[in-house]
Write a structure and sequence with these properties.
Blueprint (H helix, E strand, L loop, with lengths): L1 H26 L16 H28 L6 H26 L2 H5 L10 H71 L1 H20 L6 E2 H18 L4 E6 L9 E2 L5 H10 L7 E11 L2 E9 L13 H13 L4 E7 L3 E9 L2
Parallel strand pairs: 2-4
Antiparallel strand pairs: 1-3, 4-5, 5-7, 6-7
Organism: Barnesiella viscericola DSM 18177
GO molecular function, one term: phosphorelay sensor kinase activity
Pfam family, one: His_kinase
Amino acid sequence: MAPDRQHIRLRWNPVFIHLLAWAIVFLFPLLFIERFESMRRVHEFSLIKFYVQPISIAVIFYINYLWLIDKVLFRKKTVQFILYNLLLIVVANVVIYLVHRMIIPDEFLHHRPIPRPPRPGLMQWQDSITLALMVGLSVAIKMTQKWIVSEKERKQLEQERTEAELKNLKNQLNPHFLFNTLNNIYSLIAISPDRAQSAVLELSKMLRYVLYENAQAYVPMEKELEFNHNYIELMRLRLARHVKVEVDMPDGLCRGYQIAPLLFITLIENAFKHGTSATEPSFVKIVMREPSPGVIECRIENSCFPKDESDKSGSGIGLKNLSRQLELLYPGKYTLHAESDTRVYRSSLTIDLN
């Protein structure tokens, strides 16, 4: 029911504005209309005299507003549109002249026979200018309405295109994430079957999040942090003792805020993939904090062990998708930075959730 009421309200708003505007136009002459000194009522011929011009204005306005602009001007028939309006202005001037000088006798207006002077040419020019301005006003209103509708349709189309692109990026990211995680479990099976079983259990929890929560546009920050924590614990299971993992991820970061899912996992995943070695000492340090209310920051440092070219799992799909998702979801409200030297790779992501 609420959408129906909103639709009716939106439909009636322009009608109310039109009624209000014309009420002002038609009531304005009452401030200057002729009145009898002995009677507090408006003379009927005075009403006709004073309202013939507003009526002409209204007729020309709606002929343009409801027909000529859509059927002629918007179809690129500009010359024809101008000729139609010149004809309308001439006809309106003739009608105004006839009403003022022929239909309404001056004897009724002034109660005494007096010669009727011709209508001054200046007044006819003023009427023509007023009518021409009304044509311009109708065109301006119609053009503005057309622009508003076009802008709304453009934004709707842009939103649909963005949603489709985000969905496509997520569809690419999910297999990428699963592929890397299965590789980790595969390597863990050879080292410790018991820990591999625990890893499969953790993976099932994470896949539930990926399949169901990832389908939503935004999720509570608490769930996203929990997912990141579960992934880190899963990675710990396969790491050798010489790999040092430091995690500083306090509970309650950005509590009450919503965030697009799976944004930080790409950086965390890359840290474990490219920052650990099965034979050499290595480290991964992950720090997440809230530098100001509603702003989440993730900083990661890890030792640098680039994969060789034969390892296709490190193809960079995740980082490319992350950058594009951030551009679509948080334009102007995020910073993504990465740098490396021969030993340490540093990455950071800050998002303003306000």
